Amino acid sequence: NIEVCQIKRPKGWPEMSDFEVKYSTVPTPGDGEILLKILYLSVDPYMRGRMNDTKSYVPPFELGKPMQGGIVAKVEKSNSDKFTEGDYVVGMGNWAEYMVTDGGGFIKVDPSLAPLSYYLGILGMPGQTAWVGLTAVAGLKKGQNVYVSAASGAVGQVVGQIAKNMGCHVSGSAGDDAKVAYLKELGFDAAFNYKTADNLNKALAEANPKGIDVYFENVGGPMLEAVLNNMNMFGRIAVCGMIADYNAKSASEVSTAPRNMTQMIGKAIRMEGFIVSYYPDACKEWLGVCAEWLKDGKISYKESMVEGIENAPQGFLDMLSGKNFGKQVIKVADD
Ligand code: NDP
């Protein structure tokens, strides 16, 4: 059994030496327990926060113990009356090939509905985040103007497609021309490369000729200041993430707060942060909506697949620096 552990707390950008690959024997399930063969695991930006020893809405990873995250697994052996050998499940598990659990927090998933890895993406936490942010937090209405940053990523590509399906004008930005081309393929009305744009204010104005009613914030940094300049009256900003600052070594490296916050007053803008798991009803609702849309071909999903559990740290680091194109998933084993 291979497990990947965190062994050091990073300062700034994490490095490969912060992780260690450990070898052990495949564990045996006890009474009421199941043995999971892990097929896919998810690497997500929030995990960077868990690598620090700081108080947050999720506890830090324990040094020397396997990293944890969303996994899709097959029940290899079951001593539980809740699961049968051959079931496919999704839940929070270890960065490992195999693990034993009492099954708490794991739910069975349907492999015929979509590729199993989608349960870590569009049919999982990132897809739910897009739905929660747009509907429950921002209260998006048909025909409004939506802008999303990190638009080709795990969450962003779903945000754009939901808003299109709701009859909105949708624009997005990404840090690579191929990603921008993909956004246009998805039906975004406008898209631009924020890394090569001369002026973010101008790029946003061109991409949003009627201004922005809803901003789905994924990045923070200078983007937020430029967005405020382009927001409409009574606009809403759903603050989902600020990845531009996750690897800041100290407060002095964190992006300067927008210098134009006074616009929130005159434009009566509502800006609200959220954590997806605080909205269980909307999360459940999304699974129904998404299953229908997948069946009807009204939504699609791009993934970036890295093979092998031992490559999970590199896949994670690549995602943080934007080398992923779509949802970053680690394929651990064939079914
Ligand atoms: P992505 O798949 O979008 O991957 C991260 C992307 O962020 C990279 O591909 C890169 O894309 C972009 N990025 C990295 N650094 C910067 C930077 N300095 N400025 C702008 N963009 C940058 O990740 P997710 O879709 O999983 O997550 C998107 C955001 O949503 C994150 O901020 C995450 O923390 C947040 N999130 C919040 C949740 C919540 O409950 N609040 C739940 C899930 C996610 P590019 O090439 O375009 O730069």
From TrEMBL:
<dbReference type="InterPro" id="IPR020843">
    <property type="entry name" value="ER"/>
</dbReference>
<dbReference type="Pfam" id="PF16884">
    <property type="entry name" value="ADH_N_2"/>
</dbReference>
<dbReference type="InterPro" id="IPR041694">
    <property type="entry name" value="ADH_N_2"/>
</dbReference>
<dbReference type="GO" id="GO:0016628">
    <property type="term" value="F:oxidoreductase activity, acting on the CH-CH group of donors, NAD or NADP as acceptor"/>
</dbReference>
<feature type="domain" description="Enoyl reductase (ER)">
    <location>
        <begin position="12"/>
        <end position="330"/>
    </location>
</feature>
<protein>
    <submittedName>
        <fullName>NADP-dependent oxidoreductase</fullName>
    </submittedName>
</protein>
<dbReference type="InterPro" id="IPR011032">
    <property type="entry name" value="GroES-like_sf"/>
</dbReference>
<keyword id="KW-0560">Oxidoreductase</keyword>
<dbReference type="InterPro" id="IPR045010">
    <property type="entry name" value="MDR_fam"/>
</dbReference>
<dbReference type="InterPro" id="IPR013149">
    <property type="entry name" value="ADH-like_C"/>
</dbReference>
<dbReference type="InterPro" id="IPR036291">
    <property type="entry name" value="NAD(P)-bd_dom_sf"/>
</dbReference>
<dbReference type="Pfam" id="PF00107">
    <property type="entry name" value="ADH_zinc_N"/>
</dbReference>
